[in-house]
């Protein structure tokens, strides 16, 4: 469900900076359905990738075979990202706060961490330079605290947060995330985060994945269930 | 220059060019990571190394577990698509490993500065993040032309950089295709460079396709021939990434005993990469690359 909702956020022809995990799946689903001209750029340097298998890592050899361009990472960050050529950036996060700030560095104190997470990778610069940032993350009060323990990637370009309950959007007035739409069968009272979450006056209802989307996800894109764990 | 071969064994290359206390870089973004060199460094029991890489990956997880590392400089420390690097996590959560942390762009910029022999690099990054608080070496500068505040990172000039390449000649002109990572910048930034290759080729092969040379002989100290030297990483056109091994590392690295057992069997328990491959006879068959030739170009004039 999260993968198909995320895929629908992408318009045909857009230039997307693809991260590992569910975003990777969503981008490849979009490319096989409504957005065949989506340009996938991976931070590993593959530009216009058309992977014939779902890449386990963002450095998979299948990203190179048949891509439009392969460049070094200095070019990825300077000539594409800092140059402003990336329209959509896709990020995940262990913690997302009220203003869409993301923590992928550490739970607890930086010097004495409770849980040490992988760190920024390219996330900080993607959050700063992509024109529109989408976040994919499971929703819970623990994952969505009022303030992140460590601010890895700033939230000011975050447009939407796609969760397993519904979609949060940035409120243009207050800048905070508000509940915009729900999945079928999910009640507004099932949605809990670490702050008092406001809802849009008219809550949208998200369409479940179509038969075609489900078939592509389960049989073509992720038959080994690398990312589709449910 | 043509007759001065730099070819030597991996054992000799590490013995001569990797020293206790060195700043060591073994680069390669997912692709072309020289596990063979890391295993040799572990076998030769190098200590107090400052290990630098964008993604410490399994390779530095193993070196941390083996006690080679004093400090880690990095930007993303996970097992891609799988989860955590548990030796790294145990060391950081237990306070036994010093860390210096950037983002990918920050690490790339550090190598770029080092390669250009500049003291620092500027980038538009880190505004609003906690990274400069965690790492005081991330600073800022005011642009003398526009007045804009830009982030800066210091140059990184390793003592030794080790790069795995598909092929090189005996002088070290190394050709790489597929993902290029930050190897060119890391090599040019380094005091010494060891190139480990799948195949040693004649200089004529290099000269037939000069655009594919990423690292020139002029900056190369030693050339080592080590087929399958990147496994469980991969070499485009030679063998695939061993994703099963990466997934299996979660179970091995989670348990200190399992990890020690792995090192005993596959690192200390073999003398060379050749023996490592002999222990796993089915690897080649499972991972050998298929054919996908490029169209070729005309270099004539």
Named CATH architecture of the largest domain in chain B? 3-Layer(aba) Sandwich
Principal-axis shape of chain B equals globular
Main CATH class of the largest domain in chain B: Alpha Beta
Strand content of chain B: 15-25%
- Low-confidence residue ranges of chain A: none
Count of discrete structural domains of chain B: 2
CATH topology of the largest domain in chain B: Glutaconate Coenzyme A-transferase
Please name the CATH architecture of chain A: 3-Layer(aba) Sandwich
State the helical fraction of chain A. Answer: 10-25%
Describe this structure in words.
The complex is a heterodimer of chains A (230) and B (301). By secondary structure, chain A is of the alpha/beta class. Chain A has 5 helices and 14 strands. An 8-stranded mixed β-sheet of chain A has the order 2-1-5-10-11-12-13-14, sandwiched between helices. Chain A has a two-stranded antiparallel ribbon with strand order 3-4. Chain B is an alpha/beta fold and 301 residues long. Chain B is built from 12 helices and 12 strands. Chain B is globular, with a radius of gyration of 19 Å. Chains A and B meet through helix 3, strand 9 and helix 4 of A and helix 4, helix 5, helix 6 and helix 7 of B.
Write a brief caption for the model.
The complex is a heterodimer of chains A (230) and B (301). Chain A is an alpha/beta fold and 230 residues long. Chain A has helices at 2-8, 22-32, 73-82, 123-129, 211-221, and strands at 15-18, 39-42, 46-47, 69-70, 88-91, 95-96, 102-103, 106-108, 113-116, 132-136, 158-162, 166-170, 177-182, 199-205.
